[in-house]
Amino acid sequence: MRTAGTVAAVALLFPLLGAAPPEARPDGLQQAFAAAAAEYRVPQSVLLGVSYLQSRWDTHGGAPSVTGGYGPMHLTDARTALAAAGHHADGTEDPRGDDARPLPRPAAKPPLTGVLPARLTTLPKAARLTGLDPERLRTDPAANVAGGAALLAAAQRELGEPPSPDPADWYGAVARFSGADDSATAAAYADGVYDVIRGGEERTTDAGERISLPARPDVVPDTAQLRRTGLRTASAAGTECPASVSCEWIPAPYEQFGDGDYGNHDLGNRPASQSIEYIVVHDTEGTWEGVLDMVQDPAYVSWNYSLRSTDGHIAQHVRAKDVAWHAGNWYVNAKSIGLEHEGFLADPDAWYTEAMYRSSARLVTYLAGKYGVPLDRQHIIGHDNVPGPTAPAVPGMHTDPGPYWDWRHYFELLGRPFERGAGRNSGVVTIRPDYTANRPVFTGCAGSGEPCPVHGSSAVRLYSDHDENAPLITDAGLGTPPKTGVNDLSSRVSTGQQFAVAGRWRDWTAIWYLGEKAWFRNPERRPTAVPARGRVVTPRDGLDSVPVYGRAYPEASAYPAGVPAQAVSPLPYRLLKGQRYVVGGTVRGEYYYAVSFDPASHRVVVGEDLYHSIQFGHRVAFVRAADVRVEPSAARP
Fold this sequence. Notes:
Layout: H1 28-40, H2 44-55, E1 69-70, E2 75-76, H3 122-130, H4 134-139, H5 141-158, H6 171-177, H7 183-199, E3 201-204, E4 210-213, E5 247-249, E6 255-257, E7 261-263, E8 265-266, E9 278-284, H8 288-295, E10 305-307, E11 314-316, E12 323-324, H9 330-334, E13 336-342, H10 354-371, E14 380-382, H11 407-413, E15 428-431, E16 459-461, E17 492-494, E18 498-505, E19 508-513, E20 516-521, E21 529-532, E22 535-539, E23 545-549, E24 570-576, E25 581-593, E26 603-615, E27 620-624, E28 628-632
Parallel strand pairs: 5-11, 9-13, 9-14, 10-13
Antiparallel strand pairs: 1-2, 3-4, 6-7, 8-12, 10-11, 15-18, 15-21, 16-17, 18-19, 19-20, 22-25, 22-28, 23-24, 25-26, 26-27
Helix pairs in contact: 1-5, 2-7, 3-5, 5-6, 6-7
């Protein structure tokens, strides 16, 4: 994920400079929807509903999505994305992350070849239907909307349906527009569009245009049209998914091969044997077909679910009771469920479709409810928030899903929006920039030192003083000076994360971060963070500092005969006297011993030592409960 050509590259990251948000204005794009609807005889509500589920009407300055989709209609032209390797194949991280059974880093997969599926080539088709130049379809929002309208009209004709003015008569065409090859996924997508139509939407886009779709609660679509689409029937049998998404079972193989080796996950008995504490959000480069090929290779690695960008379809690969190899930290793997979101660095840029956000949020809501995972940013985490298990592993940890994953919108879809929870002088803040207006400067998306496309971001940059000319915060664990590269996490926090306040000065707020006082701009008129309440930890009386850990393993005396004790290895950081960090939860030390194919030899070792998980830097970390004092956050003027 360190280079733009790998699957991991889509696991971008983020630094940050603020940019003034665009002023809302009602003009061109709303008119473009009306004009395209009239020209191609598509109901405007259908056109707006489809566009909302694709892009929420954003234009992204003509930059492509993670699957090579352009403009408000997400017209796809992903030809440049074929040369993609595996997300876990960059050679920097052991996805299993277990000292007792180091996993050889997966070999890079060969570049994908062959013909792209039709769902990834809708822009060329729109060019043929409209006669418009492909480049114009990519960069001109009005032309892009016309291209989407032409595709919907063509789908309606192919179904033998007339160009009805009633949006209820377009269900089959909307289902076909999704690009799904099975009826369940196409129906889930179409249902999502009609939910938008019935409920209505209004928002200011990333270009500053106010777009409105009036609610039409009376619309009842003709779902019988789905039978005439000719799509295959996919079974959801065996999956662990909510009824509100389309899901199929494509298992990752649990197989023995070579000289006693096996892959690509471990059998378990969660949650009976171990609680599930985390859901890890990943982003993986490569077409859907290539991603499925990777996870079905027993010599590769695994994750629990894959999500498709264009329509939100879900494939489950590893059951929740079993342990997938995805996070690079064995403690986190043993306590988590991993979700890989399809995408590749097409131009590059990295925005995600609303269809995938919504499908992912429904799945996470279901899993969190079933397994008791708190819906907060210390438990719903990105791969970039997973700590290195040991000091040597810190520099190689992955950085996906990157700066362009919209955590604020995602948690709104989860039903847990990040809201103000205390008065202005609170001792804790929740990071919450305006995603669209928060436009950081990044480098290294396409080449070393090259500027990345300007884009909204979930990230906030940290300085050593209340001055944007001050040095950036340095991460001692990385051993390199902080930079503005997309994969440099040294000096960035992310939306939804909570930190203890260390000071305030005019429009600036300081937080405790990686053992330092870190400053970020937080103007009252356009705040970057909001006041919050929470519990914090600080070294107990008599201690000047305490160690910080990347895993919560038991004490040596807890291991039974036949299970080698695992080192409780500190990271290259210290929690210093006078500093405070927000507590995410308290757990007992635990280790899952699983180093052989036969699950009869697997053991869950539980110790007496307690650990507190904390938001220590960009990544979460752990401290021993015996080393710290827990207290409620106090006001900080």
